[in-house]
Amino acid sequence: MIKAPRGTKDLLPGEIEKWHYVEKIAREVSEIYGYHEIRIPIFEHTELFQRGVGDTTDIVQKEMYTFQDRGGRSITLRPEGTAGVVRAYLENHLNSHPQPVKLYYLGPMFRYDRPQAGRMRQFHQLGIEAFGSNDPALDMEVICYTYDFFTKLGLTNLRVLVNSVGCPHCRSDFGRALKEFTESRRELLCANCRSRLERNPLRVLDCKEESCQQLLDGSPDIHDYLCEDCSSHFQQVKEYLQLTGMPFEINNKLVRGLDYYTQTVFEVTTVGPDEGSLAGGGRYNNLVETIGGLSIPGIGVAIGLERVLIALENQGVQLPLEQKKIIYIATAGEDPEGKLEREAVLLLLELRKAGFAAEKDLMGRSLKAQMKFAGRLGASYVVIFGLEEIQQGRLLLRDMLKGEQLELPRNGLVEYLKSLLN
Fold it and tell me: How far apart, in whole angstroms, are the C-alpha atoms of residue 298 and residue 281?
């Protein structure tokens, strides 16, 4: 039997309703904050990610799904959303619109990684991107958006980590200092860190190996190398965050895993035995220019929806999922001429046209089996009739919760159900 590829997952009825709710809250929060939906292609030219995400990143080096199409072009399934949104911003001349332009997206991303809980090869992200403003208040807004999204879902024990990675100028000075500090420890670092020291020294701070983290104790602090502009910007971000009352921490080793970040970076994690990153983002003031536009500042965040749903489950959050009231149509008795079937179809069409979720038997079940199936469906009401009821223009309506039923005129059913369910 052919199975789903490793690192992918089918989202089935019973689970997909949770996704719908999370996506609904995402749209509501985005609307409150003034972000508008954008839908970008699932695949892009490979060069976009090489230039945008960065050649030195693990994503480009190891994790992208890249192939040649029939025209010989190198195409990549999107491993993240920001580069594609920047491309769309430029290609569709959104830079000529009143700034800032604030966009959000929902959809699948693809990375060839070792599958584990919350980390799939096809995974889903909610992301927001804002272009055109370097105001530190916008940094605060993006962080607050992320925190508000999680709290509206019911998540607690959240940890907000914030840092500044500076601009290319001050980051270059810090990179040299970090290389000098690690020179005597180079051979003790993991292979990834030794490689990162040559390509992008800041990335060694992002290593998850405990031995590497211990070796980096006492390493230079990036805040000592921030230029005046970057230091002032970060100070204002902290002051705005303090105004919100939202708890946050400064983590001077937080750098994120993408090369395009400048100045503010942040991450939101859960606290406790199931601690894990739920979201990460920051400023990318040079990315629009790197991809081919003018020097336009930007900032954004990406939120992993699989991880959010795992966190909700771990914390025992019961999502208030809406239960659509189903009306089930059951027929009783023999139907040699098909009159019951025709009446059931007509009633089904009438109920659906009136806006009700309605179902009927499609398997030739007995009345007893139909009632059992209606219970399995979670039907709120069952409409029951036989040939005698058709002739007399009446039918029975059974309340499945109360176990009660009453007789109604056929023509009055829809209006009665409207009054009952409203």
Answer: 11
